[in-house]
């Protein structure tokens, strides 16, 4: 069965960095676009970034552009999100998701990122 397991969340101070990972199994990882989405307390789901199957094409929400980098290692079936220059407004539960925005079909359990001084 499809499994997406996120890791790497935690507590960071403003300006610091974190790297999220998502280990995928149960499907042909290299055949799918993969996304990161987040949900802040009391807010709706926000799309963060997407990377297409081959890893050459990436897209970002304006709120994270220039600070976050999505990448993937198809040999390791792993998706990454490098988050630099973190801000308090980046505090959220971050999800690894299979597919493109509007066409998600599988989600991980989420990893909490908290940015606070």
Question: What can you tell me about this protein's structure?
Answer:
- The chain is mainly beta.
- 0% of the residues lie in helices and 50% in strands.
- It contains no helices and eleven strands.
- It has strands at 3-7, 10-12, 18-25, 34-39, 45-51, 58-60, 68-73, 78-83, 92-98, 106-107, 111-115.
- Strands 2, 4, 5, 6, 9, 10 and 11 form a seven-stranded mixed β-sheet that branches. A four-stranded antiparallel β-sheet has the order 1-3-8-7, with no helix packed on it.
- Strand 7 and strand 8 form a beta hairpin.
- 32% of the residues are buried.
- The mean pLDDT is 96.
Q: From the alpha-carbon coordinates, what is the Rg to the nearest angstrom?
A: 13 Å
Question: How far is it from the N-terminal to the C-terminal residue, by CA?
Answer: 40 Å
Overall average residue pLDDT: 96
Helix content: under 10%
Describe the sheet with the most strands: 7 strands, mixed
Topology of this structure?
Elements: E1 3-7, E2 10-12, E3 18-25, E4 34-39, E5 45-51, E6 58-60, E7 68-73, E8 78-83, E9 92-98, E10 106-107, E11 111-115
Parallel strand pairs: 2-11
Antiparallel strand pairs: 1-3, 3-8, 4-5, 4-9, 5-6, 7-8, 9-10, 9-11
Short description, anyone?
The protein is mainly β and about 120 residues long. It has strands at about 5, 10, 20-25, 35-40, 45-50, 60, 70-75, 80-85, 90-100, 105, 110-115.
Keywords:
single chain; 117 residues; mainly beta; seven-stranded mixed β-sheet; four-stranded antiparallel β-sheet
């Amino acid at each position: 069965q499809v499994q997406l397991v996120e890791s790497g969340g935690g507590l960071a101070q403003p300006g610091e960095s974190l790297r999220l990972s998502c280990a995928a199994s149960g499907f042909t990882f290299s055949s799918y676009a993969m996304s990161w989405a987040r949900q802040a307390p009391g807010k709706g789901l926000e799309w963060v970034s997407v990377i297409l199957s081959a890893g050459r094409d990436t897209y970002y929400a304006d709120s994270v552009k220039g600070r976050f980098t999505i990448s993937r290692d198809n040999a390791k079936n792993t998706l990454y999100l490098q988050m630099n220059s973190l801000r308090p407004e980046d505090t959220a539960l971050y999800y690894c998701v299979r597919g493109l925005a509007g066409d998600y079909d599988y989600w991980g359990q989420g990893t909490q990122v908290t940015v606070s001084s």
